[in-house]
Design a protein that fits this description.
heterodimer, A: mainly alpha, 10 helices, B: about 240 residues, mainly alpha, about 80% helix
Chain lengths: ~250, ~240
Amino acid sequence: MRDVTLVFAYGLITALATGLGALPFLLVRTVSGRMVGRLNAVASGLMLGASFGLLAEGTRFGGWQTFSGGLLGVLFILVTNRYLREHHAHPGGPAGKEDGLRRMVLIVTVMTVHSLAEGVAIGASFGGGMVLATFITVAIAVHNIPEGVAISAVLRSNGVSVPRCAGWSIVSSLPQPVMAVPAFLFVEAFAPALPYGIGFAAGAMVFMVLLEILPEAYGKGSAREIGTITTLSMIAMMLFQKLVAG
Amino acid sequence: MATPLIVLLYASIAALSAIPGGLVRWSTEPGRDRWLGWAHALAAGGMLGAAFVLTGVSDATAVAGAIGAVLGVGFIVATHSVTRLETLDLSRPDRKDPTAAPRLMALHALHACTEGVAIGVAMAVDLSLGVFMAIAIAVHNVPEAALLSGATREQGAGRAGTVGKVVLSNVGQPALAVVTWFVVATVPASLPWVLGFAVGALLNLVMTELLPASYREAGSTSIALVASVALALVVLLGGILP
């Protein structure tokens, strides 16, 4: 029982760390159109970098499983996006605001789904002893911070306040403690599903970036500026993940 | 173990695979826009996949790789500035601008050189990775060549001339592949730097040219689908490598 509480507490720490990603936005006072483009470019790069990390992890377990999980992730975003377009479009309302709202719902959904897979990773890691578990928890907590930055970048550029950005970032990571517990208790049952879950998260993230976040960014700046910010953010995320993973 | 001859052979096959693309008379008339967009998206997804496969090669030297990648980004940004290529629309160059066709050629030559570095460094890591990279780039060269040939034919060039130009724009591929392979084979310590450089340059080409060009031609849903499925296929095939 004590173990289960500990696993949950560790998962919760990683979720709270995601909220730290909103902090840099205390420094950004006003959000101009140009800034929206740049923020979306940063979010795109961070998420593409995170997906590359997930793909590397997933393909270690199984290429086909990751691949099919990825295709499911693409399908999931396709369906979710269509649903959001059909059911939350108010004719006559300001078009830009509708799109912004849809993007915000999408990114929070995608990041929440992706923390399901991370929660399983935390729970499963406890099988390897406390030292490994502590290490992996710290690693995932640190790695959640730029994910919080990505979420906050999209939310903040749509006018959401910094405390709310932090709140939504944490919410998106709450599946981590929730999923960590069953994954810890039933490691054998969860392990085979892991590459599918990781692939799903990567596919959903890449597809959402390509479908919504990048086109929005390109519309608000030169292709060269937006593209270069995206690439540099992606490189930074990949370096960060490799350093954290040791 | 790759030899210079094998590197040259596979990089040349990749470059010559542009010929079928060059034979296509690709119309840049309105109405064919979506196909242009999808061809770019296919190339973008494939290049992203190639960059992913290269990032998986060495883990121990993350910092050197990242610095190399930033240099690769800087290389693309600098060449864009020098040639004023960033103002050029990849899929529909201004027909009234006489410099558009040569600049488009230059842009394709720049792509080819970057891809040559990717093939060369992959060959230096492992023969099977190198062959994989050459095949991935060969496939990606077909739509790229078709796009270039469309623009060249529109400027009044004949079929033979177009194919010649398309192949010429790819000469950098085998040349840079051999040079890169030679550098890494002679100075093994340069591997993480060169790998990083190739990754950064490929990614920046995708983000500053291929993707923006594809979004201008077709809806973001179809572009995102084509690009992510292309990426997934390259990642899957890259994972099968021994």
